[in-house]
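so my prof wants the structure for this chain in the tokens format not the other one, which i didnt know existed until like an hour ago. anyway here's the sequence
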Amino acid sequence: MNGHSIIVDKLTKKFGDFIAVNEISFAVERGEIFGFLGPNGSGKSTTMRMLCGLLEPTGGRAEVLGFDVARQAEEIKQRIGYMSQKFSLYNDLTVMENLDFYGGVYGLKSAKLTERKEFVIEMAGLKGRERELAVNLSTGWKQRLALGCAIIHEPEMVFLDEPTGGVDPVSRRKFWEMLYRMAETGTTLFVTTHYMDEAEHCHRLGFIYQGDMIALGTPERVKREHAAGAILEVDIGTSEEALRAVAGAPGVIEAYFYGAMVHAKVGSAKADGPRLRAHLDKLGHVGAETREVEPSLEDIFVGLIERNRERS
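here's what i got, hopefully its the right format
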């Protein structure tokens, strides 16, 4: 990787007295997949809009591809691609007609446009679907076409805002394979996602909460630096009553659903595990199994949010 695609220094955005983004700082390297995470209303979209040159910062500064977001927004817009969860496709146009339209928007001429359309069709696996109307495509195929439209002009950087929402797991995996191939060729990718399995595969992550950057680093570093205590996985079902039972046990700091299990954060698995099982036995959940597991990003995410919520 060579240099930075994004440099952010104390970037701030206020709407009246409300601080949506509060002096955040980070950098994204060229060719990196950077995952930007946070709950709804945390400042993710506001940050992305500033970086895309769509919203002027209140304070601080940021550069995208060497251009200042406040003074050189038009230069940024010409050099980036953008894809949202709500696909910006024309349903009454075919796959090829959508590519023609977006190629024209970005000023691609005949020979170059033909070359780029061929590339997108091959990359996205759309061969044989060129004449199919976008409205008839499945969500997964629409997603691939939308990405193709976003990169048809060969942008150095692509912003993807919740790009795989509502997409089945197989299509999500294929979509991420496309992103990896793009990163390998030097394209920088800035991705917001709610899927923690996707976040695990980003090169680096930034967690934002109520406008503040609360964690930054590789997935491994974030887990290492923010894993407070131990995680016990409890095989007790997913009823609200089961969750309350685990949450009320001595030594349990917090409890939450994790797939078909409940995860309980405790200070010590060795000391608190037996107390948790004894507590569940008394409540009638006899024989509920517990085991210590490595904290996942979802565990870290929940813990970070809970700790910062208590402080605010």
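also thought this was worth mentioning. The CA atoms of residues 107 and 153 lie 8 Å apart.
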